UniProtKB/TrEMBL annotation:
Signal peptide: none annotated. The keyword RNA-binding does not apply. GO terms for biological process: oxaloacetate metabolic process. InterPro entries: FAH, Fumarylacetoacetase-like_C, Fumarylacetoacetase_C_sf. This is Fumarylacetoacetate hydrolase domain containing 2A. One of its GO terms (molecular function) is metal ion binding. Pfam families: FAA_hydrolase (PF01557). The keyword Nucleotidyltransferase does not apply. The gene is LOC115349914. Belongs to the FAH family. The lineage of its organism: Eukaryota, Metazoa, Chordata, Craniata, Vertebrata. Keywords: Metal-binding. It comes from the Eukaryota. It comes from Aquila chrysaetos chrysaetos.
Length: 293
């Protein structure tokens, strides 16, 4: 999907908790361009915006260049950049250093599971610690967002189907994930278990998505610190693989795996408790920070 330029797309609420709006971030942490005011005909859903293809992107570019409809960052509440995806697809054991941490063999093919869209929350919203779990864990992940529909996509053209990237936390209830029968879906898909944001950074704005530093801190203590260069299966392979089984559509989110340093493999294991603060950061994409309540 060819974009007109580098952008940081986002969703937000303005003062007074109005309906969600589409926006552009002028720079990381900078003012917000209110796309819904600049281009009222644009949809308010990021998924619908991406489905509009080049016309929507051209309208966003006009708004960015106009110099109008600017809002100070502190006056808006950022939402997950994509709030209503059809699919949230996840990849397990996809960092070499994470496999070494667990002393497991490097997979020969991608390990795929999913989360429900109801897990998604904003970049600074609260993670709700469920009563049903005592082993809630953190997992910082690079998330790719699909911008162009496809099935049986070739690796050589796979990145044409990606609109951009964002930061994700694949929050996991390990006691459910690893219990008898390995309830991966249930362990991964409690409400609020997928913070996303702060922006959907278009691929033109990222120098090399396979060479970004990726980190997670809990209460200010660095727990995960790696690079996307450690990915076993890179995005072209993942997109080609997944599209063998399902049709990818605009707004679909692909979480690409987590590096070492998760709580389950600390010695002794460490899990999130109410009151903790989890900060996930990826170079060039931004930072999300969520309190556990």
């Amino acid at each position: 999907m060819r974009l007109l330029g580098a952008m940081r797309l986002l969703r937000f609420r303005g003062a007074g908790g109005a309906e969600p709006r589409l926006g552009l971030e002028e720079a990381a942490g900078g003012n917000v361009v209110d796309l819904s005011a600049a281009e009222p005909a644009l949809p308010r859903s990021m998924r619908a915006f991406l489905e509009s293809g080049q016309s929507g992107l051209a309208a966003a570019q006009r708004a960015l260049e106009s110099g109008q409809h600017r809002l100070p960052r502190e006056t808006v509440r950022l939402l997950a950049p994509v709030g209503d995806p059809e699919k949230v697809i996840c990849v397990g054991l996809n960092y070499r250093d994470h496999c070494l941490e667990q002393n497991v063999k490097i997979p020969k093919e991608p390990i795929i599971f999913n989360k429900f869209p109801s897990t998604i929350i904003g970049p600074f919203d609260d993670i709700v610690h469920p009563e049903e779990s005592s082993e809630v864990d953190w997992e910082v992940e690079l998330a790719a967002v699909i911008g162009k529909k496809g099935r049986h996509i070739e690796e050589s053209s796979a990145l044409d189907h990606v609109v951009g990237f964002t930061v994700a936390n694949d929050v996991s209830a390990r006691d459910w994930q690893m219990r008898n029968g390995r309830q991966w879906l249930l362990g991964k898909t409690f409400d609020t278990f997928c913070p996303l944001g702060p922006a959907l950074v278009t691929k033109e704005a990222v120098a090399d998505v396979h060479n970004l530093s990726i980190r997670c801190s809990v209460n200010g203590q660095l727990m995960q610190n790696s690079s996307t260069s450690q990915l076993i299966f890179r995005l072209p392979k993942l997109i080609a693989w997944v599209s063998r089984f399902v049709t990818l559509v605009p707004g679909d989110i692909l979480l690409t795996g987590t590096p070492p340093g998760v709580g389950a493999f600390q010695k002794p294991p460490v899990f999130l408790k109410r009151g903790d603060e989890v900060q996930c950061e990826i170079e060039e994409l931004g930072t999300i920070c969520n309190k556990v309540v």
